[in-house]
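Sample 1 of the test manifest.
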Amino acid sequence: MAPLVLLAALVTVGCGQQESGGESASEEASTSQGETTSPGGSVADEGTLVVYSGRNEELVGPIIERFEAETGIDVEVRYGDTAELAATILEEGENSPADVFLSQDAGALGAVADRGLLSPLPEGALGQVDERFRSPEGEWVGVSGRARVVAYNTEALSEGDLPDSIFGFTEPQWEGRIGWAPTNGSFQAFVTALRVIEGEGEARQWLEGIQANAPRVYENNIAILEAVASREVDIGLVNHYYLFRKLEEQGDGFPARNYYLKNGDPGALVNVAGVGILRTAEHPEVARRFVEFLLSEEAQRYFADETFEYPLVDGVPINENLVPLSEIETPNIDLSNLDDLEGTLDLLRETGVL
Amino acid sequence: MIAAGRKPRSRTSARLRPPVAVWLPALLVAAAMSLPLVYLVFRALENGPSEVVEVAFRGKTLAVLARSFALAAIVTAASLAVAVPLAWLTVRTDLPGRRAWAILAALPLVVPSYVGGFVLVSVLGPRGFAQGALSPLGVERLPEIYGLHGAALALTLFSYPYVFLTVRGALRGMDPALEEASRSLGSGALATFFRVTLPQLKPAMVAGALLVALYSLSDFGAVSLLQFDSFSREIYTQYRSAFDRTPAAILALMLVALTAAILALEARARGRARYHRSTVGTAHPHGGRIVTLGRWRWPALLFCSGVVLLALVVPVGVLVFWLSRGLAAGEPLRLLWGAAFNSVYVSGLAAGTAALAALPVAVLAVRYRGRASGFVERLSYLGYALPGIVLALALVFFGANFAPGLYGTLVLLVFAYAVHFLPQAVGATRAALLQVRPSVEEAARGLGRGPVRVVTTITAPLAASGILAGAALVFLTAMKELPATLLLAPLGFDTLATSLWTATSEGFFARAAAPALLLILVSALPMYLLVIRERAQ
């Protein structure tokens, strides 16, 4: 009996403490009005912004804190995987508590926008960013750029050994030397670009060619880069910024570097991490201020210096170690054309990649 | 349970009909457990039945389902092979330091599979620690770790404690009179073990094996790190890359069907035998006679240390190495006591809730056997094999749209844990109830106690160790749960698991080591208490 009574007591205490638990998460903002009117646990105070962030807390936490410090607005963030958060927003539908969706890629924003769940952004914010890096309907805007690159092991290879085009890696000499992450969103965006630029047939040939070279499959970009550095593989298809984090952490001795493919190759695609405001946002005004803040010089500099991404607003200098965006021979493609993910998935499945 | 001739027929059938106080809570639990299924059926049929057929039979889907089944079978067999001898050695022999071994052998349960898998790759992978240590000795390349055997190894190492704990519990609760009778009738120690002990352990083995098998189906962390293409990985891929939730729901329903098939197998393995004591008051301090190992204790010790080394010492060692490397490089030591408190708090609530919910289900299943009670019990297992993301999104859907008052509060997160991990509590409670003599309850009923009071004052205390063991399992599993925690926790509610995820998903290993070690440390405490408590009894 004793354990049962204890358990029951625990549950009762737990339910009793629930209210205070929700409060303490946002202790400063809570006014008595806020906690009584918000059954959702998040304090629905006018000054509180709810952000769903598919970008990691280690990367965007500091810049969100700066926004809070400068505006006095409290921000509550749900961190998670970008696609899982997109699915969450779709499941929540009209009842989503989120004001803002901060996404790691354009595809997830496009999916949420397709269901009519995002509201148009103010012209002022949109106008700051090149057309290529925002939604044509103005429902989301890119905040920082990330380039697809080939990471190579510097002990095994030098730049001269690498082909100009992504198709070069289908040659037999690359057998067993390639690492990729077919489940990764950035990789899939690249395959979509490949389909759009070169056509279905070429894209299929490329996938089959790489498959024939028995590539190693990794969970994500970091795992690939680690594998390149340890010579588990010689080259890996990744985003550009992971390398710079490693260089910062382990010094110039880290035995991997980035290589940019040439001549507008799809393998040199520049994609974006972006942001959108939910149509059902309870705090649209605060949400707009947040989006404007992310496009401010301060935030853009933060992304350039701290996450080694490309700022997308003109006039903000890039990190000195990066190849300037203008020098990357990136394919000329509209990112919003990369929305046929289902077609890409079908192709990946048909070729046995997934 | 009751000799047929002793009582009038009408009485017997009345006895078999469960009282409202048992079936009503059990029904409520069953309703809660069916929520994810309702959601999946609703999502799967969203675009009509033709899509169901198309997704189910496209490409490699069925092959991957078969691979997942194979993985679950291998992991289950390996877990039994590791855990049953370990349990026997630590309960019934004079193995030196057996209580310490018992705690150490149970501890790998607290290592999350995404941490365990990662450590395994960094040790046994190409260019891992082991390769580095062995290459001066002329070993050029270790056998490949990626693939089926690597995934099976990782899952076995970190889930065999489910079998270990349930079998230990059964060994301690077993009626020693049976073994004593067997020995006094002239059977040897070995024959007694195989003919008397092992059959008595069957329900516990089956219960533990079921938890391992279904866990292997649902796991995503270990399989993805070890590059094994399992069905749950397929489901994650579907969610992560296409934002269409219908195919993912169809795949998840296929996993539910596979689970149902495994449950049917389990029902056959379980049989209809009874396992309670024949007499009262023969409790032996160790639940039976102690076997003297003699010189066999050396191989026994080697076996125990081998398992503990691989499943516990190596992961903790690697984490400590990462931590010290990070500290040496100037990383600040972040001891996340707030997150640790949150983890313990919410996991404790989940454990209590699951234990309470499991009791009526287990009582129904053990004392009122029948089709309906069997259905309710098995229903509780279906959610267990679902990958966390599926369950989380199901509750996001119901929470946001039908219970907005609870959405984003701890109540929904605790509910999610309880729904997900209920089978752990049901299994342990059920195994303990099987060892309680029904005649004790009948005596209390005969003396005029109502059915509810009998359950709370007789049955529950007698099965207390099993109920507590079940609660502990739920607690430990909830501590490391990730997908539901990310999506359902109140905003800003960090736990050790989410902190760990924040660090690892961007490759900050040094930063991941501290929360990982803290998670293992904090989880070790209840495990220790559990084993200590056993001793006190």
